[in-house]
Amino acid sequence: MPICSRRPGPPAPRAPRHAPSGRGDGGKGAPVKTILVTGANRGIGRLAAAELLRRGDRVILTARNPDRAAALRSELSAEIASGRAQVRPLDLASFASVRGLSAELIADGERLDAIVHNAGTLSPPPVRTITEDGIEQTLQIHAVAPWLLSTLLLPALARPSRLVFLGSSLHLPNSRGVPVRFSFDDPFLVEGYHPERAYKNAKLAQLWVVREWERRHGAEGVHADDLCPGFVPITASANTRGFMRVLLRRVMPIMPFATSPQAAARLEADWAERDPTIPGGAYFDGGTPTQPSEDARDDDTARSFWALLEAWAPV
Ligand SMILES: NC(=O)c1ccc[n+]([C@@H]2O[C@H](COP(=O)([O-])OP(=O)(O)OC[C@H]3O[C@@H](n4cnc5c(N)ncnc54)[C@H](OP(=O)(O)O)[C@@H]3O)[C@@H](O)[C@H]2O)c1
């Protein structure tokens, strides 16, 4: 069960809505930002996409399941007809799907102001699962595929722009449950697989991606941040059953440490719109700048993980 220690704080500084980006029609209420949100068919991502649309942004929503994508298209038919929304397929458990989406967006001449790497599996499989690309599934969905998507979309990213990764304080070594333990000798957890560990390791790996991304691409204006949205029990309950489901849906939401899906979505939208000139490479727990774990702050480890990414998913 994912959790962040802090509930959402004050909103992030936003760029002026009519920034001199050369896009939009420049008129009152014209959309300035084009924002890609992954895993936007349900949960926090769906609400964040709705919030961004409400604020006047142009949003590209992705969904991995064709039926859910079709349902989303019909929900958003008015926004799609006006060109303010698009629904595109994306399954992060498949590099072919990642490559397909990025090729399409580049061919269509899209210019992205932000990518929100929201998609995730809050309940990783009980048994270790390897994707068609040979990577442990949870690590691929949260860290490897988002890195590949961002890298392939570099030519489509505006300067300045921002990547927002949805992280979790569960990457911390003292978080409750099965401890985080990422080994470069066994990144796919042949030994000691547990769904909680897979999730925590993936969120730690995401922080390395953010750190090394900022070091490599921050100077050219493509910044990356890691944002823990708060503990959102309602969306975290999606793939749970029985007692855990009742706990997450009925009891946890009224606890003082819980965050509502709407508040988490507003935070996600704030970060997508955050002034893109502000340097990144930071971790925000509930929107508050926070030190990630010591492992997550290690530059050499971040570089080593980047080398693995390049080997696993050659660009
Ligand atoms: N909820 C929390 O308390 C909490 C706390 C900290 C961090 N987070 C992070 O916040 C993000 C959103 O969480 P949430 O609570 O909104 O989750 P959610 O309700 O379970 O939604 C997850 C979304 O990700 C999509 N997804 C899952 N696997 C995918 C794949 N292989 N390829 C593409 N999309 C995939 C899902 O699509 P389908 O509908 O097809 O499954 C769904 O749209 C996640 O990254 C999560 O780790 C959540």
Automatic annotation (TrEMBL):
Signal peptide: none annotated. InterPro entries: NAD(P)-bd_dom_sf, SDR_fam. It comes from the Bacteria. Residues 1-32, 279-299 are annotated as: Disordered. This is SDR family NAD(P)-dependent oxidoreductase. Pfam families: adh_short. Keywords: Oxidoreductase. GO terms for molecular function: oxidoreductase activity. The keyword Cytoplasm does not apply.
